[in-house]
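Lab notebook, bench 4. Still working through the backlog of constructs that have no structural model yet. Next entry is a single chain of 468 residues. Request: give me the C-alpha cells for it.
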Amino acid sequence: MGAVNLNILEKLETTTQPVVTNKTVNTQATVHKRGIQSLQELNNQFTIVPEQANTTPLQPLNDGIIAVVNNKPILKSQLQQTMQRLKNMYLSNGQKAPNDNELKNQALKQLIIRELQLDMVRKIGIRPSNQALQNSLLNYAKEQGFSNLLQLQKSMEAKERGSYALLVTAITDDLAIKILQQSQVARQINITDNDVQAFLTSTEGQMLNKNSYQTIHIRVPFANAHGVNKNKTVAVAKIIQNELRLTSNATDKTIAKIIAKAQANYPVEILGGNMGYHKPDTLPAGLTNTIVNLNIGQVAVVQTDLGIEVIKLVNKKVTDNLLIPQWHTRHILVAVTPYQNSEMAQYKINKIYNQLVQGRDFAHLAANYSNDPSSAGKGGDLSWVSEGNMVAEFEKVMKATPTGKFSKPFKTTYGWHILQVVDTRKFDASNDVRKKMAKEILFKREAPQIRERWLEDLRNSSYVKFLE
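Model written out:
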C-alpha cells in the first residue's frame, strides 16, 4: 500500500484565525468555532488569538524563567500572556474560566508542547514553502479587512513597530508545526486496499456511491425440513440463473414464468421479482457489494443463511460519473546529471529526434537511449496519464501533441524529453475518487489518536525542567 497523502491531515486541523494584538503576538492558544470541547482538544491546538474586551486581567508575574524545554527557556511573561488569552477565550465562548492554577497548568502544557514541536522543526529543518506562507498571510489579511499584504503591514506597523515581522514568524511556526504533525502521523498509519474495500462495502461506505441499481432478485429457500438437500437447492437456482441470462425482459409476467418453471417439484415457495431502482445503502445487507460490481445483464448466484439468491442487474442509473481526460503516453528522457550538463543532454535528444523524423521506431529508441529506468524497458511507455500526474512542462507538451504524433524536444527539471501520445480517452474516475474519499475518512478516524500518542511520546522523551 502506498503512503497516505499528507494533505488529508489538513482536514483534521481546527479552523483558526490568527490575530495580532496591540502589544504582542502570541501563538499559544486557539479559538475553536464550536467552542472549547475538552482540555485534550484545547491543549493540542496552536494559533494566534486576540485579546478580548471587557475581561479581567490576571495579576502580572515578575519575568523570569519558569521552565526549560530542551535547553530553551519558557518565560513567566509568556505564561502570563497565554493564561490571559485562555481566560479570554473561555469568557468569549460563554464559559466560566477555570481558576488560576488550572489556567496555569493548561497554558504551561501548551507552551511546552509547542516548544517541543518547534525544537523538532528546527532540528529537521522544516520550513513551509513561500507560497504556503504567502497564502496564509493573504487569508489573514482578508479576514482583517485588507485587500493585500501591504495594507496589513502598514496598519500593523503604524500601531507597533515590528509587529508584522512577529506575525510572519508566528504563522511560519504554525505552518511548520502542521507539516511536522502531518509527517509524524502519516508515517504511523497504514491503510490497506482491504481496509478501503471493507469500508466501501459497509453501509457508511455505500453512501459515497450515488448510483441507482435496478435488479431482479429471486430467492430459492433451503428446504432441509422437506428432505431436500443443498445440492438440489443450488440446481434450482442454476435453472433460474440460466433463464435470467437468456431474457432481456424484466416484466413481472416474464419473471413469474421463470419462477413457475423452477418451482416444479420444489416444496418451498420461491420468491422474487423486479425490485426496481435502489441506492447502494438501501440494497439487501450482504448483497450490496455483489450488486454494485455486476455489469448490466450479468447474473450472480450468492448463498446466504436463507437460501440461494439469484440476482440480475437489469440497469444502472449513473449519477456520479467523473469523466477525466487521459493520455496514453511514451517518452524518451536524456537526464541532466553532474556528469552530463544541459547542453550535452540537449545535443543527444536532438540526435534522437532526428532519428524519429527519419522514421525510426519510438519504442526502440526509448529502450536504447532513455535514462528513465522505470519506462525505458517498456519502450518508454508511461501508460495512461491524467492531469496533474506529470510536471507542468511535460503536461503542457502532452496536451498539445496530437494522437499518434511525437513532440519536439523540451526541457523539464529532469532533463530533456521527447514524448509521444499513443491514444487519448475519457476515463470514469468515480470509483478511484470513492476509494480516495474512503481512505481519507479512515485516515481521519485514526489520525487524532495517533497524534495524541505522538505528542505524549514527544513529551516523555524530551528534557523538561520546571524551575518553580
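Notes after review: The longest strand covers residues 415-428. The two ends are 49 Å apart (CA to CA). Flag for follow-up if needed.
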